[in-house]
Design a protein that fits this description.
CATH class: Mainly Beta
Shape: globular
Oligomer: single chain
Order of helices and strands: HEEEEEEEE
CATH superfamily: Macroglobulin (MG2) domain
Protein name: Carboxypeptidase regulatory-like domain-containing protein
Number of strands: 8
Keywords: Signal
Strand content: over 45%
Distance between the termini: 59 Å
Number of helices: 1
Radius of gyration: 19 Å
Length: about 100
């Protein structure tokens, strides 16, 4: 009986460590600075993270703008003339998507 509890406790401990090791929470936000310019910010675990890749894509997935977040974890671009969405990526699988209709 004790052996079964040890195996369960060991598995629970391994699972907990994986959650902590991979416990990143991406954030991203975009705002309209004026009629022409959009500014996006992004990061991980509530902190801006410079250097993250940012892509602005059309609805048919063509890249309109590509760049990296600056030292403040921000990136500005001119508002595209077509419907678009923004991807901010820390690493594969750790991505925030912001659709144009979400931008105030």
């Amino acid at each position: 009986m004790k052996k079964g509890y040890c195996v369960f406790a060991g598995l629970l401990m391994i699972c907990s460590q994986q959650v902590l090791a991979h416990g990143y929470e991406m954030f991203g936000d975009c705002i309209r600075q004026d009629a022409k310019t959009i500014r996006c910010t992004g990061g991980v675990n509530g902190k801006p993270l410079p250097g993250l890749r940012i892509d602005v894509l059309s609805d048919d997935d063509a890249i309109l703008v590509r760049g990296r977040l600056d030292a403040d974890g921000a990136f500005s671009f001119d508002t595209p003339a077509v419907p678009f969405y923004v991807l901010i990526e820390a690493k594969p699988g750790l991505v925030v998507e912001i659709d144009d209709w979400e931008i105030d």
